[in-house]
Specification:
Helices cover 69% and strands 0% of the residues. With 108 residues, it is mostly helical. It has a domain of 72 residues: SMc04008-like fold (Orthogonal Bundle), CATH 1.10.3340. It starts with 9 loop residues before the first helix and ends with a helix. The relative contact order is 0.11.
Length: 108
């Protein structure tokens, strides 16, 4: 398949990627807070916590000290404990089984 992506400068690409990331966070946090992290993990292999880890890793790679809680707050738009209290439900036995199966399927 031919590459149809327009050639972007590094700066433009960074702006576009940042805008897409902000839109993803807005979608997850504002439009779909009902989507549980375990369901994201089952279907996509990552969740909001993974995004926070990647965010923290990127900040640290740029020489910016960012801890786990600050990274989660940046991703969740609020302290994680607050988001969890408002939106996270106890995982069902079915979700736990599906998560276990997904982990086995994608583990090497």
């Amino acid at each position: 398949m031919a590459d149809v992506t327009p050639t972007l400068s590094d700066d433009a690409r960074t702006r576009v990627e940042a805008a897409a990331f902000r839109r993803l966070l807005s979608h997850l946090n504002d439009a779909r807070p009902d989507v549980q992290n375990i369901d994201l993990m089952i279907l996509a292999g990552f969740c909001r916590n993974c995004l926070a880890d990647w965010y923290r890793d990127a900040a640290n790679a740029e020489g910016m000290a960012l801890d786990k809680d600050a990274a989660r707050e940046a991703v969740y738009g609020m302290p994680f404990a607050e988001w969890k209290a408002q939106h996270q439900k106890e995982a069902t036995p079915e979700q736990l089984a599906a998560f276990e199966a997904a982990q086995k399927k994608h583990a090497g």
